[in-house]
Amino acid sequence: MIEEHLKDGYWIEAFQADDETPIGFVAYGLSDREISFYPNSWTTTEKVEPIRIQKLINPIAMDQADITGNGFKDIIICFDYGRTITDFNPDGGHIVWLENPGQNIGTEPWEQHYVGRSPTIIGIPIVNGPSDVPVLLFRLPDDVLNAKAGDREVVDKEFFHLIHDAKKFNVHSLDNLLIASREGLNWLYILKLAL
Q1: CB–CB of 135/160 below 8 Å?
Q2: 189 vs 119, 122, 140, 171, CA distance in Å?
Q3: Distance (Å, whole) CA 27 – CA 174
Q4: Which of 50, 95, 124, 193 has the fewest CB atoms within 10 Å distance of its CB?
């Protein structure tokens, strides 16, 4: 048993804080607000306690990347989209990245860096009220540690009505997305034109 008596559970994802530590996982619920890292319990005979990374209002989806380039994986996460699909935040949610403190991983909450509202980050809200759901591309500024927010552009705003999940993959060094939505499974890609 890893943890008992959880009040909520929504997301779980394998997470390796750096290239040297064993793979653990990040988990959280929609309503409990606690984003936690669970170190790999197979590497010790003692009970492993979860490390509280941050508290956010209704965290939804996350991804991971070494944004600072220091060898430690950071977490990109969206939150505050609302309590349910019908009780959503009319102003949209937020996207932040949480800076991995490296060797001090469990001593204090990870620092938040604001990306924007609903390398580059694709923001895909689940719902947008009665309107279509926009697919947003956020570009991180050169100074990621001190920026107030990143620039954004709308990739698509007329096709999707309810998005559940998206997965990124590469074809010929270009990012592609598979998007699972009310409309079905769709492939969003960059059309590379030969000039």
Answers
A1: yes
A2: 17, 12, 20, 9
A3: 30
A4: 193
Instruction: Please say whether the beta carbons of 92 and 99 come within 8 A.
Output: no
* pTM (predicted TM-score): 0.66
C-alpha–C-alpha distance, residues 121 and 119, integer Å: 7
Q: By C-alpha distance, which of 70, 178, 171, 175 is closest to 124? A: 178
Q: How many CB atoms lie within 10 A of CB 151?
A: 12
Amino acid at 56: L
Q: Low-confidence residues of the chain, pLDDT below 70?
A: 1, 83-86, 117-133, 139-142, 144, 149-150, 160-161, 191-195
Distance CA 84, CA 101 (A): 32
Give pLDDT tens digits for 128-173: 566 666 777 776 666 767 777 667 777 777 776 677 777 777 777 7
